[in-house]
Q: What sequence folds into this?
């Protein structure tokens, strides 16, 4: 039983899907073929239906969520966008990494606002950002910070959207998209990777872009080339969008993982059902953990993640419990970054079953 | 039977390896775990043993050969390397794309030298390049141009290496590494992707870098950071090398494909054996095609690729033969770029069996 928060457990159906992929020659199809485009299109339709992604959002595949950070940083940091300020609100390792990468490349327009792991993002955080009718800002948020198991609530995201109509909001939802019911209208760019809440092997990122953002990009791009003009980069936003509109990618992608994604997204129920289950199980687990005298890393119940939980222990305790768990064939997640030594993380992803959590609870008792 | 020159046929063992990957939980392993590092290390050792890659070369994984173009262009085109000239010799679509990408980003230091598809690269081509003891040039070659089925012979590569001791040679070997016996000492950077001569599903690139190149990069990099310093990009060369030295990657990679690579590279014989077989089969096929009154796209026997062949027909003939082939469950490769309409391409990769070629010949008769 693998409770690592990604790469994590995969759906047990993955085995059959891998065999199907082999038997139906998916492993050999051209990424410019109709068959590939049909698979891509079916994913888009199912994401719209099951995850409520607005129909006018564009779905792009990348190699990872990490690549998405760079695509967004570069697309809205250089050339005609070099006067756009990007404000990064973070309280953990992944939000900070995204900020660090942008700061390293575009130092003059990148601002980091750190908040505490038990602190709720509030409207006054955003009042520091100068608002301007003619020049939008970018607001970067990590909806679910996998490193310290905190989240920004959907309610807060909607408030930010309401209050920052002129700005563009980019959201890293790596460990929540697919597990939580997110309102995609509340941001202009969302991204994730499939080894978390999609229950698939690693090697694929997904990005959803709003029509407003694409429109702004088109209008202000130095070049939004037609087919005749050379693109600067294979993962340049204009090129990614052009190909996504044809249900294609800009280079030979991880076709197998895209196929697996088409299978998993046609297999899972609507996100409202999944999300309710995940939340209920998370709340139950949090209570169970406290009842059994463990400390939780996150004490403020309002900012606790629903998809990843962290138990805080003395470093020796962490080692001890991991060793014991291993004997019972239970893999617990290490801590991350500043919390590497004294926390254990537990993924609560849709592919995990209730029976697995019953066994985990038995073990933790 | 799939003769498309990549994505192409995969080894039939891939089916078992996929099942093994599932059964042994490879799909869920952490990319920082010992298990992952062991897999990575085993690939490096087997590449050294079976493909004769020098032990002091560094092996890096990327998402694709396309990404390798960009990594090399950016690493040796910007910052402290902005005075390094890059000379691109090409006769087809892929060599030109690599050149175009560099030209678009670093126009002042990028030079393209186009040659004919039936022309052999000769020493006098290189005499145009100013040689300089203090400032090396970069020479970019496409050893096997998949788009028009030409190759630069290993003999020529050795000559270029001999004559250009001060320069760095970068070689795109996307559709030949794994099928041809290449002398890796003859260049400083080599790259490929696994859906060609490795017989695997798409989604992984491999790059081999010489110690000379890495040394030059280290000495001249503005920053070759230690762990404490933030890297600019997740696919920055310094970061890739640092992680490769630990048998790790800079981000969550396509672990499944890396596992499949470890299986295929431990399964295949030494490249000298594979290469002889491929060459013999290619020569035989070329003769067969001509004997049956087909035109070959490449008339100069000296520059004909061993791993990809192209038949030239009237556009109607191409359509006709593809339709007929489909009925017999034979997939032939489309033409590419300028040769899209009037050629058919046939992959001659190690994963293709002699029986498949016997059937293809029967069909072509």
A:
């Amino acid at each position: 039983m693998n409770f690592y928060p990604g790469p994590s457990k995969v759906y047990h159906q993955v085995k059959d899907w891998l065999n199907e992929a082999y038997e139906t020659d998916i492993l050999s199809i051209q990424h410019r073929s109709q068959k590939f485009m049909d698979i891509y299109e079916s994913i888009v339709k199912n994401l719209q239906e099951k995850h409520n992604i607005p129909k006018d959002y564009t779905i792009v595949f990348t190699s990872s969520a990490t690549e998405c950070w760079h695509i967004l940083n570069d697309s809205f940091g250089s050339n005609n966008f070099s006067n756009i300020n990007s404000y990064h609100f973070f309280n953990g390792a992944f939000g900070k990494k995204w900020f660090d990468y942008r700061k390293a490349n575009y130092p003059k327009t990148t601002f980091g606002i750190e908040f505490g792991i038990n602190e709720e993002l509030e409207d006054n955080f955003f009042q520091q950002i100068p608002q301007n009718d003619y020049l939008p800002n970018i607001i970067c948020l990590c909806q679910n910070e996998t490193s310290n198991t905190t989240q920004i609530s959907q309610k807060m995201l909607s408030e930010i959207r309401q209050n920052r109509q002129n700005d563009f909001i980019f959201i890293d939802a790596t460990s929540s998209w697919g597990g939580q019911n997110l309102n995609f209208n509340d941001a202009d760019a969302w991204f994730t990777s499939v080894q978390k809440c999609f229950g698939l092997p690693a090697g694929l990122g997904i990005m959803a872009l709003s029509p407003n953002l694409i429109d702004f990009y088109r209008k202000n791009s130095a070049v939004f080339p037609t087919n005749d003009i050379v693109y600067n980069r294979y993962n340049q936003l204009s090129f990614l969008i052009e190909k996504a509109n044809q249900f294609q990618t800009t280079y030979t992608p991880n076709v197998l993982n895209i196929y697996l994604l088409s299978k998993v997204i046609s297999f899972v129920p609507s996100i409202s059902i999944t999300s309710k289950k995940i939340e209920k199980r998370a709340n139950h687990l949090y209570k169970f953990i406290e009842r059994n005298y463990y400390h939780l890393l996150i004490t403020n119940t309002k900012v606790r993640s629903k998809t990843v939980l962290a138990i805080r222990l003395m470093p020796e305790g962490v080692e001890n419990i991991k060793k014991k768990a291993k004997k019972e064939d239970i893999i617990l997640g290490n801590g991350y970054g500043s919390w590497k030594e004294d926390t254990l993380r537990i993924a609560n992803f849709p592919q995990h079953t209730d029976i697995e959590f019953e066994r985990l609870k038995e073990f933790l008792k």
Observations:
- The CA atoms of residues 72 and 237 of chain A lie 8 Å apart.
